[in-house]
Amino acid sequence: MAVPSPCINVCTLDHATGLCLGCARTLQEIGDWIDLDDAGKQAVWNRIAERRSRAEDQASASAGGPRDGLGAHRPMDPAR
């Protein structure tokens, strides 16, 4: 089965983090996506999960919500 794109059409770059607020990918990952094999795409999904986990940890340690918006829109992780 092909690995789905994490894009959810909320394409806004957070200049502070360098990540898309919709899919939590870097511009490099977005640009490379079309050329990646399934293992490479899954590696991107794994990095997205790590980023979101760190963002949630930071958010829970502070009084406010997620500072970088990575938890706002979550595409389905194909590994789950």
List the SSEs and their pairings.
Layout: E1 13-14, E2 19-20, H1 27-32, H2 38-61
Antiparallel strand pairs: 1-2
Describe the protein.
With about 80 residues, the chain is mainly alpha-helical. It has a domain at about 35-80. Helices cover about 40% and strands about 5% of the residues. Strands 1-2 form a two-stranded antiparallel sheet. A hairpin with a 4-residue loop joins strand 1 and strand 2. It starts with 12 loop residues before the first strand and ends in a 19-residue tail after the last helix. The relative contact order is 0.22. The model has no long low-confidence stretch (mean pLDDT about 85).
Number-wise, the strands total: 2
Low-confidence stretches: none
- Radius of gyration (CA) equals 13 Å
Q: Can you count the helices?
A: 2
Major sheet: order of its strands?
1-2
Structural class: mainly alpha
Shape: globular
Q: Which percent range describes the beta-strand content?
A: 5-15%
Average residue pLDDT? 87
Give the fraction of residues assigned to helices: 25-40%
Order of helices and strands: EEHH
Distance between the termini: 14 Å
Biggest pleated-sheet summary:
2 strands, antiparallel
